[in-house]
Amino acid sequence: MQFGVFTVGDVTEDPTTGTAVSEAERIKAMVAIALKAEEVGLDVFAQGEHHNPPFVPSSPTTQLGFIAAKTSKIILSTATTLITTNDPVKIAEDYAMLQHLADGRVDLMMGRGNTGPVYPWFGQDIRNGIGLAIENYALLRRLWREDVVDWEGKFRTPLQGFTATPRPLDGVPPFVWHGSIRSPEIAEQAAYYGDGFFHNNIFWPVSHTQRMIELYRKRFEHYGHGAADQAIVGLGGQVFMRKNSQDAVNEFRPYFDNAPVYGHGPTLEDFSRETPLTVGSPQQVIERTLSFREHFGDYQRQLFLMDHAGLPLKTVLEQLDILGEEVVPVLRKEFAAKRPAHVPDAPTHASLKAAAERARDLETIPEPAGSVEETSR
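Structure for LLM class flavin-dependent oxidoreductase, as requested:
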């Protein structure tokens, strides 16, 4: 099972000081968080894609490429790549390039985003959101898997004899998670292709997340990719920890109350009860996270949001120390002990490459003597 952190890259005023970092400081802070995540033994660093204030990560490949040069182990992911407003040709080439630079430590989370105005900014119509997600991803898969592509669709100009460059590293495209919080069509899309499904459930009650994941698992099995409990599932989460749980609540409350997304709404206590937000001691975070398995089954990836709402970088790095030293080792052990042997690990470039090589070997095995054709003569 993979554990990591994701960032939305917001530039938010610290409510305890009344000051905000600059865009340059926030961008460099995200790099520092990625480096710290690798240092403390996490598996994944993921960043969103946004094109509107107060968010800064408008070019994930630029930042992830920079991080790739400074790391050696951690998987670099998006959270999300906007499959609706990005050209699939550009996605195919940008992320194949990143894949080469990072020696395969790359995957993507495809999504439609949560900012309606982004569609006209990039020449699209939000009313075509689902159609764009379906058509663009179908083309992207072909661009990564076919050396020469002839294609015609509804939302962009046709392609004739087109080859995306560079080709995916080792002939293996990056693994794709489809991220959605409310669209069953996206869960269906993930299941159809046998890809991963990531539910960023940080704003949603258990019952809603459960329905989405159960739909994905059922359709994954329907399309013949394996049993429902072998589907590849990822979950979001949000934590803030201190040794004493009341200290954590007192410190985090002003950030929660003024956060750009959920601030000035429900109380911290109500929000924590209804969503995965856990503010307390490391043991409370461990117990809450382990409970996810009871609701959603065995799953492959857990990402935590830890740098939102104006939290100072120093505080975020302290949180990562606690996560890496006190929380994740226990979660790894407990989840592994309960997971049945037939439930797969999270895909990596190495595992995908090995699977592709096995498939190629099977294709080249000669027909054995005494085959059906021979013996029927």
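The chain is about 45% helix and 15% strand.
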